[in-house]
Amino acid sequence: MSQDYIRTGHAFGLSHSKIYFFYALKATLVPLLTVIGLTYGFMLGNSVIVESIFDWPGIGRYVVESVITNDFPAVMGVTLIL
Question: Are the beta carbons of 40 and 63 closer than 8 angstroms?
């Protein structure tokens, strides 16, 4: 919030909400989406491990069984969905 373009927006008299939504949010959107994507990937990977260990039915267990039986269309479908 102490970047030059934020201070310039304040100097031009723009409202705080306009500065936050149009300038600050745009600058923070790329790192935010990166962290969300990585977290989502870790959660899906961990679901495969947990479902395999505890023998719970679910998409993680399905993909493990598909890999073991060489069911390539099922693996590609689960990969596309996840």
Answer: no
| Structural domains of the chain, count | 1
What single string gives the DSSP state of each residue in 3-51? SHHHHHHHHTT--HHHHIIIIIHHHHHHHHHHHHHHHHHHHHHHHHHHH
Assess contact for 78 and 63: CB atoms under 8 A: yes
The structure's pTM equals: 0.56
pLDDT digits (tens, 9 = 90+) for 21-78: 888 888 888 999 999 989 988 888 888 888 888 888 888 888 888 989 999 999 889 8
Instruction: Tell me the residue range of the domain where 30 lies.
Output: 4-81
Q: Which helix (H) or strand (E) holds 77?
A: helix 72-81
